Backbone:
């Protein structure tokens, strides 16, 4: 098989050749765009799921949909211990530029840009020297008096109101997409929820679409109790058999190739339906095959290559971030679950490792912060990465 024509594309956040199994989320967002543009009430969205299920890819698709609908759209990736002002300012700058091409009042656009600039400049600490202040690339003077109080909750409400008003002027809306949302600081999470709540009450045409790990709803709820009603939650999981087959067959057939039934069985068993793994095994099987149709024998031959790539780029890069104490904890989880993707009691991990639970708390808390595990529910812990337990056992990690 010609490797140049290989259609499969495993990669972090890289759009697969066929966005299979996500019609429900895409259709739901289409309705949000239409309703908000017509002044109808609608909730912001939150997508949750494990690593490798395609949350980042789906965020990118939703952003593209918003832009095609004439909306202003900006996307950011939250980072642990980093404040929200700077990345949000850059995202909203992009969104305002999208709206500016449709707006016929340049002074109004400059006014909102000036308010955004004032908001962004508040990222510097009080008394910071000029050279220490971040200067956003906004070519208008800052406008004082709006979104620059220094209180992130007040400032977000005022800023979102101004940007949403600019969108309303041209009969459209604004979408702010936030990846790794669980990594926002508590104050920023609280402010974001408060701003979304305020704007939803006024039916302002601005929506937030967040994506994060399965415990993100708990993070939001701990910040603001009304967040359970503020967002529409959608759990993104692995593909079912029909969609996993389609994700393989449709791209292959566009390149005049196909998979036989036994190959599809083998690929589903290997990938578990997780989109990232579907792409990784599909790519390796294509490269290993001599001719079409690709067979189960080709998949078997290709599996070590796919697993070696996953071991380095998907599993290994995460494992390397763990300290020896954290690796011991991960290994204990893997042994207790026998490599299955399921939660385990934290007390069971302590018993298995023959340690006091309190002595393991630092390792567990650090793994939570690094995003390698999440708290499935109180007293339980699970891997954020599918098949991670299986990887640990297979590699003696």
Residues:
């Amino acid at each position: 098989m010609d490797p140049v024509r290989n259609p499969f594309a495993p990669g972090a956040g890289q759009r697969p050749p066929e966005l299979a199994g996500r019609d429900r989320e895409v259709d739901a967002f289409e309705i949000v765009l239409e309703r908000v543009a017509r002044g109808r009430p609608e909730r912001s969205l939150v997508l949750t799921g494990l690593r490798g299920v395609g949350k980042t890819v789906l965020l990118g698709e939703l952003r593209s949909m918003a832009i095609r609908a004439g909306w202003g759209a900006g996307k950011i990736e939250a980072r642990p211990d980093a404040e929200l002002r700077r990345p949000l300012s850059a995202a909203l700058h992009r969104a305002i530029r999208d709206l500016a091409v449709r707006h016929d009042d340049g002074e109004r656009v400059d006014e909102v840009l000036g308010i955004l600039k004032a908001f962004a400049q508040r990222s510097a600490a009080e008394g910071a020297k000029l050279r220490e202040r971040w200067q956003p690339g906004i070519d208008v003077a800052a406008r004082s008096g709006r979104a620059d109080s220094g209180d992130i909750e007040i400032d977000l409400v005022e800023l979102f109101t101004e940007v949403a008003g600019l969108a309303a002027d041209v009969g459209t809306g604004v979408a702010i997409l936030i990846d790794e949302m669980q990594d926002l600081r508590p104050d920023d999470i609280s402010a974001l929820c408060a701003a979304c709540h305020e704007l939803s009450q006024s039916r302002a045409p601005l929506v937030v679409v967040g994506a994060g790990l399965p415990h993100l709803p708990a993070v939001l709820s701990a910040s603001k109790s009304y967040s359970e009603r503020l967002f529409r939650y959608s759990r993104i999981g692995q593909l079912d058999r029909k969609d996993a087959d389609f994700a393989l067959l449709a791209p292959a057939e566009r390149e005049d190739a196909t998979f036989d039934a036994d190959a599809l069985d083998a690929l589903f068993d290997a990938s578990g339906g997780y989109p990232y793994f579907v792409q990784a095994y599909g790519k390796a099987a294509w490269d290993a095959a001599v001719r079409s149709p690709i067979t189960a024998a080709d998949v078997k031959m290709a599996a070590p290559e796919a697993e070696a790539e996953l071991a380095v780029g998907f599993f290994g890069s995460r494992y390397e971030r763990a300290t020896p104490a954290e690796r011991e904890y991960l290994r204990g989880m893997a042994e207790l679950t026998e490599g299955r993707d399921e939660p385990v009691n934290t007390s069971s991990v302590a018993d298995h490792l023959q340690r006091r639970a309190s002595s393991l708390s630092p390792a567990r808390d650090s793994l939570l912060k690094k995003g390698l595990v999440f708290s499935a529910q109180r007293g339980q812990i699970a891997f954020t990465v599918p098949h991670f337990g299986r990887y640990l056992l297979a590699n003696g990690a």
The longest helix spans residues 296-319. The domain at 23-235 is CATH 3.40.50.300 (Rossmann fold). Strands lie at 44-48, 72-77, 174-179, 206-212, 231-235, 344-345, 373-374, 380-383.
